[in-house]
Amino acid sequence: MLTVRAPATSANLGSGFDVFGVALDRPADVVRVETADEISIEVTGVGSQYIPEDPDKNTVGAVAEALDAPARIEIDKGVRPASGLGSSAASAAAAAVGLNELYDRGHSREELVPIAAKGEAVVSGDAHDDNVAPSIMGGFTIATDDGVTKVDADIPLVACLPDIVVSTRDARRVVPESARVDQLVETVGWAATLTTGMHRDDPDLVGEGMNDTVVTPARAELIDGYSQVRDAALDAGATGVTISGAGPTVIAACEDGDRRAVGTAMIDQFNAVGVEARVYQTEIGDGATLF
User: Fold this and answer.
1) What are the sequence ranges of the domains in the chain?
2) Which of 8, 66, 267, 290 is 20 to 30 A from 160 (CA-CA)?
3) Which CATH class is domain 156-283?
């Protein structure tokens, strides 16, 4: 039996819709894999009652099929489903890394990304790499059709998860089908700024690059109190705030010494609009780890 810890992730980061992602130091899923004649899945942990154990309906079942690696798979969920923190991606990433090692398939971490994305498609309906890439490889990742680029960045982050459910499918339905040229120009500028900030470990540049006037405003309507929480986090010292993935988690970049104040401000503001929330004081972390 092999055990793999795969981290939660934050995708999009405002200006990098379906392209940018970061691995978070916490929370994480832990997946155990053991050789077997057929695929079987057992799920425990946070939100496990909502996750099907049928291999045809579970993200790790698709990964095992893609790797031709039948196994007994135990998933201990640390990342809440429908959180905007790459819950299904963490399970898929862990399974891909574990089964690749268990059956000695010989794939590199980058080669495992599209395999894990097949599992993501079971949940979201589309195979996107923006969550599975950082969960497998760690750091800040740029996922395109040509592959994945990774940057080992060091940026303090605060992730605030409200007690709201936003499904990936619902969040994708509200995404505008087109954007004005001026919005495109703005987005390119912000994405370039964020990427530069990651290379420089500069929270100010990363925060500025989290701006977005196309996707985030549409998704913000699905999160009660989002604008108030964003303003409160910025007032408390955050350098930038946006929706993590499909939401409802709100992610903020900041200086290391400001994480506690930013997290407290975000929770307090969610509470002010009648929504309970929890906060993760975290940072950009490593990818899936075998132990």
Assistant:
1) 2-151+286-290, 156-283
2) 290
3) alpha beta
